[in-house]
Amino acid sequence: MSEAALVLFLEASVRLGVPLALAALGEAITERSGVINIGLEGSLIAGALGGALIALATGSGEVGVVGGAAAGLATALVFAAFSVGLGTDQIITGTAVTLGGLGFTGAIYQASFGASGAALTLPTLPPVRIPALADIPWIGTALFAQAPTAYLAYALAPALWFFLFRTPWGLELRACGEHPEAARAAGVRVQRVRLAATLFGGALAGLAGAHLALAHAGTFAENMSAGRGFIAIAVVALGRWNPILVLLAALLFGAAAALQFLLQAVGLDLPYQFFLALPYVVTLAALAGRLGHARAPAALGLAWTRPR
Amino acid sequence: MAAASVVATGVVAAALLWVGGYDPLAAARAAARGAFGGRDAILSITLVRAIPLVLTGLAVALAFLAGTWNIGAEGQLYAGAVAGVWVGLEAGRLPAWALVPLLLAAAMVAGALWASVPILMKLRLGVGEVITSLLMSFVAVNLAAYMVHGPLQEPRGVFPQTAAIADAARLPMLVPGTRLHVGAVLAIALAVALWWLLRETRIGFQVRAVGASRTAAEIAGRIDSRRVTLGAFLASGALAGLAGGVQVAGVTYALYEGLSPGWGYTAIAVALLAGLHPLGVLVTGLLFGALDAGAAAMQRDAGVPAVWAMGVQALVILAVLALGRAQRHAEAELTGV
Amino acid sequence: MTSVLARLKGVERRFGSVQALAGADLEVRAGEVHAVLGENGAGKSTLLRVVGGMLRPDTGLLEIAGEPALLASPRDAWARGVGLVHQHFMLVPAFTVLENLALGRRGWRGRRTRDDRGLIEDATRLMDRTGLVVPLDALVEQLSVGHKQRVEILRTLLREPSVIALDEPTAALAPAETGALFALLRQLAGEGRGVVLVAHKIDEVLGVADRVTVLRKGRTVLCEPRERVDAGTLVAAMVGRDAPSRSLEDAPPGPTRPGARARGERVAWLDAVVVRDDSGRVSVDRASLEVHRGEIVGVASIEGSGQRELALVLSGRRDPAAGAATISAGVGFVPQDRTTEALIGEFDLVENVALALHDDPRVASRLRIDWREARALAQDVIARFGVVAPGVDVPAAELSGGNQQRLVVGRELLVASDLLVAENPARGLDVAATAFVHHELRRLTSDASGPGVVLVSNDLDEALALSDRLFVMSRGRLLPVPDAQRTREGVGTLMLGGGAGIDAEGRGAAGAAHA
């Protein structure tokens, strides 16, 4: 196998892993506060469409990304209004938000561009090459010649780690996820913290969706999120809710998705659907293999409302 | 409360349509006509579309009642469809009275098998079944796609679908001249059976107890909650798989990509709106079947994209949740926190 | 004149159909230890939670340091100098002690990174001053109950509250530890703070309080300095009758000597049984025990000693990891947490009764449940055990605590033909309901043909008064209590693992099956 094929594989791994990483990092914060957002997929697809529309309207990929983040945040706001504000069941609410996200984005897309399914061409987010680092052999171009959103992911991981484990706000957030009663008794505003964490997660997922549309595919298609939001949730668990491990896990998943390039280069010709299914199978296997001892935030998924 | 949810959803949906520049009334009229506008509409479209919704709705309701989240009914449906089509193609020489039950049984087994992965991962490894059942759905859809492009593809190799299943494998029509097949009777029978099981039998009581409070069921009831959960989840998968088999044997007679427009997910709305009551699922399944039928007409006649239906489902779920929450507040909890 | 740090007047609070507070008053003065007494359900905890900002009152006056205060959350209470030490600790189990102490303190230091060093200094100083020592880097979930309480108190004190309110702090402590706690409370009062102590054990608080308030049915019925009251007046105020009748004194006189009552055949036998808890740790370490018909075997302990796992094994809900447990078939279990373990709140009373009977031939065949029969049995239970309910079709959650317990006891007795295991059966019940439970246990064992009873209790007085034979559970070891040690002090010593774990015959702690 040639060096070129290996480099291609590494580049593809990072490229495919970045949207997962962004969404998973956001969800990690959300889940650390005690909220599991199954509606992440909805935020992701909303971000993809939002990013696409804003980029078209402004002609700029960069502004589109911001628009995508806003769309993701708005979607998460709906989720938070019900699950954090009203205390409805997080699983069902999240499922509804995902269904709604997929449905409404499809509807808006068809209404705007017709049901013909002709591909849009969008202003893209071109890769940015970091001068010295990109020259490192083997991994240089893979890591440092990516779209700017990739660098955001690299920077966010240690920053979020520091936030969670070295700042008082991070301590409060983690307390909300472990024992919201105790957090409240200590004076923490639990619902406010959870709301902020959920919106943050939604914004990052929206960002990831925008990246998908603007930096990865260059177009929008219905259901293009393809379950990445759900995989991101699994990545959070595999990364033990630790931002740095989450980033690594996401990149590993990117590698699993990029495996098709590697296998094709080696001459293995497997059916197309096999590669489509591969990320999900790998996720399942990873969950089965390593998850046994990871410790989720104790209050994750349990509805909690402020007593009146 | 279900009625209130429907009303609330209708209001919000109408508002959103209006904001989007559509005429809500025209859309509603088109939808109603599409769903109920005539004998053919009712029998051949609405009721037929309701059947898979009722079956998957029962599947989801059963799982939820047992305290588990089966979000992967879509995948279990596809697994059942693949198994059903395979039997329908391979065992075509058997007589109908043997072939039809065999096909449906294969579909149920496949669905249960597909559901066994998430529930066993939960029971043995402690992995939440929500994500795993969702992931399995994606795998199933791709598996079905592979099947129709490859091993099971129709002999000429032109279209991504299977050959038509043997005549003997097809479900007879309930009302001649329409597309309403006996699967409807099966769906109704199963709904009644599930209702009876939950109310009158020991195992049904155990399922409800475990779903209501696993702790009390184990300590006060000495119930083996793991076994009950496993059984309920597998039965849920079987029902969803059956939906796939029934669809293949009763409507399409073949398998192709996109067999299900998301019935496994709509089933969640169907189950919740019915308050997880099996007989209620008959009503809500019909309602969503009508929505499905109406959506196509809505697109044709009023220009509203059919994908709207998915959005409406989401609104329904949110409405049910919000109103359920409000009701509980109104009943005033007895203990303060 | 001592200053009034906090004042509540005419506070009312309702939860659904229950009026928890119906005109409660409280005055907290600097330099005083103020005890709040009342039986279970009188509203003491609710009042404290109002003081601590966890609940908002429906009406009433709340003043802190002379200023009217509207406390919307504990955050507001802290800001006004009011700190709560909760009965059920408000600590994050997965965090270390230091992290728990740091939680919520951001406002005081306001720095971007956690000021660990400053906190460690403050905490160490505080531990020296109060004598409450805990390792700062230990995980809270691994601490003993007593140590957890120390952390809870330290956390409160670190914020320098002027009013510190403790909710039933002695429930989790052995008698010796209680003394140390009270000494600390006096010390805190001496520093000029106002200390509020909620309890329902009179003799405990009479030694430490300067002033006593009594709540009854949500209303303040008495507020006097310590010198002007005695146990009798307090009990009368708590219960509202002239003749004080504490359940244990009222119960039919029972023997407190082992073997004095007739005993029947053996119905349960544990032989060097080892039981693990849910996380795999050994909870019961080689316990041996025999239970016979017609006797009450008491197991006294403090929380976390392994008595839960012992109860689970005795009632057939869990298998031992080692050793042999031979339990007769007809076993009933009254678990300590009735709302989550014994009853399903959303099920009606018939279904809750069926919970114990769903595999019993009286009600269930192989396939079906005979709901008519179940209903009849449920109505019978309600009638015989005096459960006050509008009918059998109401959800169990709508019953009061006392009635729920009556239902549970009645239901378990339907199946407890051989053995009844009762775990803190009187927890959270008022005097009347407590009397009922104790009376039932005595009645059951009044002759040698009825079932045997195992009473697992954190309430020393309950265990001492009711048991024919008494054991102590301490750190997983089941120790018989010799007659000579059948007092509060004697049992307390055994609980803390001291001294006479070896009885007169020289048998070791693990061995004895008979006292």
Kindly describe this structure.
The complex is a heterotrimer of chains A (308), B (337) and C (515). Chain A has 308 residues and is an all-alpha fold. In chain A, 72% of the residues lie in helices and 1% in strands. Chain A has a two-stranded antiparallel ribbon. The longest helix of chain A has 30 residues. With 337 residues, chain B is mostly helical. With 515 residues, chain C is of the alpha/beta class. Chain C contains 18 helices and 19 strands. Chain C has a 6-stranded mixed beta sheet, with helices on both faces. Chain C has a 6-stranded mixed beta sheet with strand order 15-16-17-13-18-19, sandwiched between helices. Chain C is globular and about 65 Å long. The termini of chain C are far apart. In chain C, 49% of the residues are buried. Chains in contact: A-B, A-C, B-C.
Task: Summarize the structure in short.
Chain B has 337 residues and is mainly α. Chain B has 13 helices and no strands. Chain B has a domain of 222 residues.
Note the topology.
The complex is a heterotrimer of chains A (308), B (337) and C (515).
Chain A: H1 3-32, H2 40-58, H3 61-86, H4 90-113, E1 128-129, H5 140-144, E2 145-146, H6 148-166, H7 168-178, H8 180-185, H9 190-217, H10 228-238, H11 243-266, H12 272-290
Helix pairs in contact in A: 1-6, 1-9, 1-10, 1-11, 2-3, 2-4, 2-9, 2-10, 3-4, 3-9, 6-7, 6-11, 10-11, 10-12, 11-12
Chain B: H1 2-19, H2 24-36, H3 39-65, H4 73-90, H5 96-125, H6 129-149, H7 183-200, H8 202-212, H9 214-219, H10 225-252, H11 263-273, H12 278-302, H13 308-330
Chain C: E1 4-15, E2 18-29, E3 33-37, H1 44-51, E4 59-64, E5 67-68, H2 74-79, E6 82-85, H3 97-102, H4 106-109, H5 116-130, H6 145-158, E7 163-167, H7 175-190, E8 194-199, H8 202-206, E9 211-216, E10 219-225, H9 231-239, H10 247-250, E11 266-276, E12 282-292, E13 296-301, H11 307-314, E14 322-327, E15 331-334, H12 338-342, H13 349-357, H14 371-384, H15 401-415, E16 419-423, H16 431-444, E17 452-457, H17 460-466, E18 469-474, E19 477-480, H18 488-495
Parallel strand pairs in C: 3-8, 3-9, 6-7, 7-8, 13-17, 13-18, 15-16, 16-17
Antiparallel strand pairs in C: 1-2, 1-4, 4-5, 9-10, 11-12, 11-14, 18-19
Helix pairs in contact in C: 13-14, 13-15, 14-15, 15-16
